Amino acid sequence: MAARNLAAVLHGKDDLRLEEIAVPEPGENEVQLSMGSVGICGSDIKYWAYGQCGRFKLTDPMIIGHEGSGVVTKVGPGVKHLAVGDRVAIEPGVPCRTCELCKEGKYNLCPEVRFCATPPIDGNLSRFYVHAADFCFKLPDTLSMEEGAMVEPLAVCVYGCQRGGVTLGSRVLICGAGPVGIMAMMVAKALGASAVCITDIDNTRLSAARSLGADHVLKVTTGDCEALAGVIQDTLGCHPHVTLECSGSDQSLTTGIHATRPGGSVVLIGRGSMQPAIPIVLAATKEVDIKGVFRYANCYPKAISLLESGKVDVKPLITHRFNLMDSVKAFEAAKDRNSGAIKVMINC
Amino acid sequence: MGDTNLSAVLYAEDDMRLEEFPVKDPGPGEVQISMHSTGICGSDVHYWKHGRIGDFVLTTPMVLGHESSGTVCKVGSGVTSLKVGDRVAIEPGVPCRVCNYCKTGRYNLCREMQFCATPPYHGTLTRLYTHPADFCFKLPDNVSYEEGALLEPLSVGVHACRRAGVSLGSKVFICGAGPIGLVNMLTAKAMGASKVCISDISEGRLGVAKTMGADSIVLVNTKDAKAVAKQVETALGEMPDITIECSGAESSIQTGIYATKAGGVLMLVGLGPAEIKLPVVNAACREVDIRGLFRYANCYPAALEMIASGAVDVKPLITHHFTLEESLEAFETSRTGAGGAIKVMIKCAKQ
After folding, report:
1. Would strands B6-12 and B93-94 be described as parallel, antiparallel, or unpaired?
2. Smallest Cβ distance to A104: which of B29, B100, B105?
3. Residue span of the signal peptide, if any (chain A) (predicted)?
4. Which of A98, A267, B329, B331 could make an SS bond with B134 (beta carbons 3.0 to 4.6 A apart)?
C-alpha cells in the first residue's frame, strides 16, 4: 500500500515513525515538491538520539530531515523562475525577509527563520513537501538528486571557508574527517588553497580523506594540543592560515588556536561543549580570530556551481542508501560508528 | 471640493497638478501614514521638467515626492513594530525581498524595486500614503518630522561614505556643496574623517559649507581639472584619500581622479551626462578605484542614529517651506536655487 504522503515523524527520543500526512498545497511564492533524496545530518541524529540539539529541544512531533532535493509538482501564484518538472536543491531555512539582519544579507541569523527540522518547524523527509520558491535552486541536468541533497552540507562548507577567508595560497588545517570536514577540504582546494591537512581519531575516515584529496592526514593520538599543533606545523611546513574546526571536539578547537598563524582565523563549524576552556589570551594576542558559523547565507548557488563544474565531486561521500520506509534503519546506520558511513542518503 | 487626499501628480513634463488621489488601505504588513513633510530632490525636479531620467520614463500620471515623514494613522494586519500615532521616516524603496540582490543585502539593486516617484510608482507628496511597516522608521521624540524627511538624502551620504571606505583619519574631498555634498560632508565627519575639503562653483554654497564644518573650501572657476586638483591638494595640505563627487559635472569628475591620492577611491554620487571623458589611465595606474552608487541600502538606521545622537545637525539644510498646495512654487524654488535654497520642504498636512 503506497501512502499518498508518507513522512518520517520524530515523536521523541528514539521514536521515529513513518506516518501518512496531508499533501500540502503551495501558496504565494511557494512550490510543491515531490521529494527526491534527503541526507541525514549530525543534527538530525541528535534530535533522534537525545530529543535535542544544542539549545533546540524537541517538544512536539516534527517531520525530520533538511538536506533535501526534489522535483517541482505544483507552482504557487507569483512563481516565475520554476516550472513543474524542475529538479531543485532545497535551501531549508526561510527567513522573515523584513528584519535588519535579513535586509543586510545575513538572513541565516534572522531570529524568525523557519528551518526544516529545527523544532518546531517540520522537515522535508516526506514524499511531498511545500517550500518558498526562491529557496529552491534549479539543478543542472548533470547533477543527480542525491548530489542535490548534498548541496546543503556543501553550503555549510562554502560558508565556513568564506568566513575563514580561505583563498589562493591558503594553507588550511581541518579538524575532523567526517562529511563536513572532507567537503570543507574540497571547497578549500577549489578556492585555491595550496595545502590542506586533515586530522581525525579514526583511520577509516582519514583514508577516505586522503583518497579524496587531502594533502596530509594526521591521526590524533594525544591530548597535548600544543604538541599536536607542532606536528601539524611540521607536516604543513608552516602554521596554517585558517583552521576549520569540523569535529565538535573541544580539544580540536584548542589545537586550532595553537596551530593557526598569527592574524589567521579559526572557524567553528563543529559543535562542541557550550563553555569549553580555551586559551583565549593566546588567540587574542596572536590576533587569531575565532569565528562561528550558523548554517549559511547565499551559498547555494556557489555550491551548485562547484558541483556543476566538477571542481568538487561529492558522490564518493554517499556510502549508504535507504528508502523512506527504512528511515529508522538509515538513522541507525548514520549513528553507528562501526557502519563505516560517511553520508547516509534516504530516497523518497 | 473634498480634500481627503490632495496630491501633487505629474501628468507629463511640465504638467504637475494638485488633485484628489485615491487612498490605499494598508494591507498585511503595511501602515497608512498621515504625511507631514516631504523634501524636494533634484530627481523630482528633473522628472517634472523632462518627464524622464535615463531609462525611467513617465508614461502614466504619478504622484511626486520621496523624501518624507509622517504619522501612522492606520495599521495593517501583522504589524507589531508600529502603532497608530507613531512618528515615522519613510524609506521610499521597497524591494522584492526574494531575489539574490535582496538576499545578499544589496536590495537597492533589486530589479523589481518599487521606489516612490520613480515611474510608475507613486510618491509621497500626498496627504495619506501607505507603505510596508518595515520600511518605516520610528522617530525618537528629539527628531523632528523635517529631520525625518532628511533621512533620505542623509542615507545617500551614509551609503557613499561606506562604499568609499571613509574612516578614522580619512582626508575627504567633496565636489559640490548642494544638499548631497553637504550630507556627505556631515557623514564623513561623523565617521571619523579628519579633514574635509569641499568645492563648488557658487560662493554662497561654499559659505554654507564652511559654517556647517568644511575644513577648507575651493571655489571652482575653471574647467582645468588638473588645476583644480592642485588647489584641493593645497587647501587640504595633502591629496585626499577619498573623493566623493556630488555634482555630476564632467570636469568635476575628472578633477576627482587627478586629485585623489594613489590607492584611494573616487565615489560617483552626482549624476550628469551618460558618457563623459575620463583620464582612466591616470586612475588605473595609481589604483584610484572608481565606484558608483545607486540610492542606499540598510542606511536609515545609521542615519537616524546620527541625527538622534546629535552627531550631525541637518536643520541648516532646510531653507524654504511651502504647503502642499504651493508645490509648483516649491519645485520652481528648488529648481532655480532662488533665495539660497538648499533643501525645500513641503508640508503635506492640511494647514
Report:
1. unpaired
2. B105
3. none
4. A98
Please check whether residue A291 is in contact with residue A164, taking contact to mean a CB–CB distance below 8 angstroms. yes
Which residue in chain B is spatially nearest to A108 when comparing CA positions? B103
Judge: B98–A134 Cβ closer than 8 Å, yes or no: yes
Domains and CATH numbers, chain A: 5-138+314-347 (3.90.180.10), 155-292 (3.40.50.720)
Tell me if A103 and B298 make a contact (CB, 8 A cut-off).
yes
Q: In terms of Cα–Cα distance, which of A184, A167, A163 is closest to A292?
A: A163
Query: In A, which residues are within 8 Å of B298 by CB distance?
Result: 100, 103-104
Q: For chains A and B, count residue pairs whose Cβ atoms are closer than 8 Å.
A: 38
Within 10 Å of residue A297's Cβ, how many Cβ atoms? 24
As a residue count, chain A comes to 348
3-class secondary structure, B211: helix
Q: Which chain A residues contact residue B301 at CB under 8 A?
A: 100
Of all helices (H) and strands (E), which one includes residue B332? helix B327-336
Q: What is the CATH number of domain B4-150+314-347?
A: 3.90.180.10
Q: Single out the residue of B135, B101, B178, B146 nearest to residue B313, CA to CA.
A: B146
Cβ–Cβ of B132/A98 closer than 8 Å?
A: yes
Residue with cell 525611467: B56
Residue B208, H or E segment: helix B203-211
Q: Domain B157-292 belongs to what topology? A: Rossmann fold (3.40.50)
Tens place of pLDDT per residue across chain B (351 aa): 567 899 999 999 999 999 999 999 999 999 999 999 999 999 999 999 999 998 899 999 999 999 999 999 999 999 999 999 999 999 999 999 999 999 999 999 999 999 999 999 999 999 999 999 999 999 999 999 999 999 999 999 999 999 999 999 999 999 999 999 999 999 999 999 999 999 999 999 999 999 999 999 999 999 999 999 999 999 999 999 999 999 999 999 999 999 999 999 999 999 999 899 999 999 999 999 999 999 999 999 999 999 999 999 999 999 999 999 999 999 999 999 999 999 999 999 998
- Which is it for the CA torsion B159, B160, B164, B167, positive or negative? negative
- Name the residue of chain B whose CA is nearest to A103's CA: B105
DSSP H helices in A212-336? 225-236, 250-259, 280-285, 300-309, 327-335
A84: number of Cβ within 10 Å:
11
- Do A298 and B97 count as a contact with CB atoms less than 8 A apart? no
Cβ distance B105 to A103 less than 8 Å, yes or no, reads yes
Instruction: Tell me the pTM.
Output: 0.91
CB-based burial of residue B293 (10 Å sphere; 0-12 exposed, 13-18 middle, 19+ buried)?
A: middle
Domain range summary for chain B, segments of one domain joined by + = 4-150+314-347, 157-292
Does any CB of chain B come closer than 8 Å to the CB of residue A103? yes
Cβ separation A97–B301 shorter than 8 A: no
Cell numbers found for residue B325: 498646495
Answer whether A107 sits within 8 Å of B103, measured CB to CB: yes
Cβ–Cβ contact A221 with B under 8 A: no
Residue-wise DSSP of A121-137: S--S-BSEEEEEGGGEE
Give the minimum alpha-carbon distance from A209 to chain B in angstroms, rounded to a whole number.
33
Q: Residue A164: enclosing H or E segment and its boundaries?
A: helix A145-164
Best of A80, A103, A137, A159 to mutate (most B CBs within 10 Å, chain B)? A103
Nearest to A2 by CA among A25, A17, A18: A18
> Is A142 within 8 Å of A308 (Cβ atoms)?
yes
